[in-house]
Amino acid sequence: MHAVVCEDVWMIYKSLKSEKIALKGINLKIPKGKIFGLLGPNGAGKTTLISIMATILKQTRGRVEVLGFDSVRDAKEIRKRINIASGNPNLIWSLTVYENLRYYAMLYGVRDRRVVENLIDEFELREFRDVEFNRLSTGNKQKLLLARAFVNDPELVFLDEPTKGLDPPVAKRLREKIADMQRDLGISVVLTTHYMSEAEMLCERIAFINRGEIVANGSKEELKRMLKMKDKITIEIDAEISMQLPSLEGVYMVERDGKSLSFYVDSAERRLWDVASEVAKLGRIKNIVVREVDLEDVFNELVK
Ligand SMILES: Nc1ncnc2c1ncn2[C@@H]1O[C@H](COP(=O)(O)OP(=O)(O)OP(=O)(O)O)[C@@H](O)[C@H]1O
Ligand SMILES: [Mg+2]
Fold first, then answer.
1. 13 lines ligand 1 (CB under 6 A)
2. Can you tell me whether residue 27 is helix, strand or coil?
3. Using a 6 Å cutoff on CB, does residue 87 contact ligand 1?
4. Could you tell me the residue range of the domain that residue 137 belongs to?
5. Looking at ligand 1, which residue's alpha carbon is closest to its atom 2?
6. Are residues 196 and 278 in the same domain?
7. Rg of the chain on CA atoms, in Å
8. Global pTM?
9. 131 and 160: one domain?
10. Cα–Cα distance measured from residue 2 to residue 31, given in angstroms and rounded to the nearest whole number
11. DSSP letter string, 207-268
12. Which of 221, 242, 265 is at the close of a domain?
């Protein structure tokens, strides 16, 4: 059984004046017990899709199955077993950390105070236990929001941009926390993000979504392989580059930026010599950098 299965899911936002097609026939299978990433630019449809999976929105057409239940017919069953945290903290501003968690725990019928106290420790909020929500830093608000997503001991957690707006060290800490919680509890996590590095660090499988469509879906390695680009060679020379280079074997894409050229190749080891020899004809080489292609490169290629 999968955590989530989407079959030809469409979402059309209708208003009096206009119609916006946010999802165009999404087909997706999300495995259980892993972290799955939904990656895409602004307006791609990530929040819409995750909201449908979490039974907050109802799709216009198509079928969604969550933990074996139908998202429309069995929404109640699903809601007991899942939880969601979105990047826009929306807790009760006048309640403290403890009171907020306790309140949400009660909504789920969780009476044991230890559940709340454990979450406070787990998310490093002990110091702020009695601080009101509106007086917390953005990072701590986000931690509280994540903690809240665990009050009902969910099997499946949806995280919509969990590290949005956080500075890098806080974001890193939170990512580690998400990875720890997922591993320790063996739950399934579906998260959306703009950050390639986040998906690369956390997610075993990733779907790229653009303009309401899944443009690629697979493991990190599969996605990179799919595009056949493994390494990126960037060479800087001492002159502006205006000439077109001849096409070279094993080079899938060339980017030009002022005095530097980047080559996306199948293997840097095999292609470096040819590429560098060609560039040397354009000017004196000042610097060469070789690195593995990352998801950001893959993504830029996919959404073109
Ligand atoms: N309630 C709504 N009514 C009308 N259009 C909407 C509504 N919500 C979202 N949209 C539109 O649907 C599309 C998908 O939006 P969505 O919020 O799902 O994208 P997203 O990938 O989450 O973007 P972001 O990265 O900015 O959060 C966008 O074009 C958006 O403007
Ligand atoms: Mg969104």
1. yes
2. strand
3. no
4. 4-221
5. 13
6. no
7. 23
8. 0.85
9. yes
10. 5
11. EEEETTEEEEEEEHHHHHHHTT--EEEEEEESS---SPPPP-TTEEEEEEETTEEEEEES-H
12. 221
CATH of the domain at 279: 3.30.70
The DSSP bridge pattern shows strands 156-160 and 82-86 to be parallel
Separation of CA 276 and ligand 2 centre (Å): 42
How far apart, in whole angstroms, are the C-alpha atoms of residue 103 and residue 116?
10
Tell me which residue has its CA closest to atom 28 in ligand 1. Answer: 43
Question: In a mutational test of the pocket of ligand 1, which residue from 11, 12, 13 has the highest number of ligand atoms less than 8 Å from its CB?
Answer: 13
Based on the domain organization, do 245 and 199 belong to the same domain?
no
Alpha carbon 86 to its chain centroid, in Å, reads 12
Q: How far is the CA of 184 from the centre of ligand 2 (A)?
A: 28
Of 169, 190, 221, the residue at which a domain comes to its end is 221
pLDDT tens profile 156-173 = 999 999 998 888 888 999
Determine if ligand 1 sits within 6 Å of the CB of residue 189: no
Q: pLDDT tens, 168-217? A: 888 999 999 999 999 999 999 999 998 888 998 999 999 999 999 999 89
How far is Cα 135 from Cα 155, in angstroms, rounded to an integer? 31
Domain count, the chain: 2
What CATH number does the domain containing 15 carry? 3.40.50.300
